[in-house]
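Retry 2 of 3 after timeout on previous attempt. Resubmitting structure tokens to design endpoint.
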């Protein structure tokens, strides 16, 4: 895929959604990280702030990508559910909360609420990177209920969300449920 066309098409899809939206971003494994970073770049450039939940790559690793993409993280908080499995101590450290593992969904949900309340912006967003990884650590029924709860919380608070998946690695039932609850599915 041509990088320029990829970025233009993704930004066009995101730009067509208005101020408050919930999107299922379904990418192939080759373009996955670029699609997540381009989406994050688009929303931060649009003036949105919020919470970035990572279960795919450690926060420290992702910050290097944020810098390379010139992503302004001033109005973002982070939840990292993977670093503690590699030895990082759990807890809040600066702008990031480290949670023991991706199966601690109740704790993740509490931190999402707490951090979203700290954002002092009108347009807030939750980015989940990625449900494909989270399904490795959680049964599908539990992850589906968790995702539905998050989507309902976002809607009740007029907040946006981007739920990311890798197209060949997401459970069909989870994908179908999310697609029916989201305003749009963007396939990259």
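Retry 2 succeeded. Sequence:
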């Amino acid at each position: 895929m041509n990088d320029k066309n990829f970025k233009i098409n993704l930004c066009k899809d995101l730009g067509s959604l208005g101020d408050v939206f919930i999107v299922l971003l379904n990418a192939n494994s080759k373009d996955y990280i670029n699609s997540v970073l381009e989406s994050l770049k688009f929303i931060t450039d649009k003036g949105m702030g919020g919470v970035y939940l990572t279960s795919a790559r450690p926060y420290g690793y992702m910050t290097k990508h944020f810098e390379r993409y010139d992503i302004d993280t001033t109005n973002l908080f982070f939840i990292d559910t993977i670093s503690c499995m590699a030895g990082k101590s759990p807890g809040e450290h600066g702008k990031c909360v480290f949670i023991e593992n991706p199966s601690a969904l109740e704790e993740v949900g509490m931190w999402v609420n707490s951090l979203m309340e700290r954002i002092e912006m009108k347009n807030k967003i939750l980015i989940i990177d990625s449900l494909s990884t989270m399904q490795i650590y959680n049964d599908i029924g539990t992850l589906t209920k968790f995702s539905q709860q998050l989507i309902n919380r976002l809607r009740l608070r007029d907040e946006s969300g981007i739920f990311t998946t890798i197209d060949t690695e997401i459970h069909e039932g989870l994908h179908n449920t999310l697609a029916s609850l989201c305003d749009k599915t963007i396939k990259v």
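Attempt log closed. The longest strand covers residues 160-166.
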